[in-house]
Amino acid sequence: MKRRDKKKIMIIGGAVSLVLLITMASVAIFSGKSELEEEKIPGLEEFGEDFFDLSVVNVMVEDEQTLYWDISVPSNSTDIIVITGVQILMTWSDDENPPAFRPTYANTPDTFILSVEGIPLLGNGGGGEGDNSTNVTTTGVIRIASISNMGNTRVNLDALNNPILLKTTGNGSSNTTAQSEWEEGASEPGDTGLFINVTCIAGDIVSNRPALLMYTDNGDEVTMTIKVFYKSIPQEVLDNWIELNSRAETGG
Question: What is the DSSP string of 160-223?
Answer without folding.
Answer: TTS-EEE--BSS-SSSHHHHHHHTT-BSS--SSSEEEEEEEEPPPEEESSS-S--BPP-EEEEE
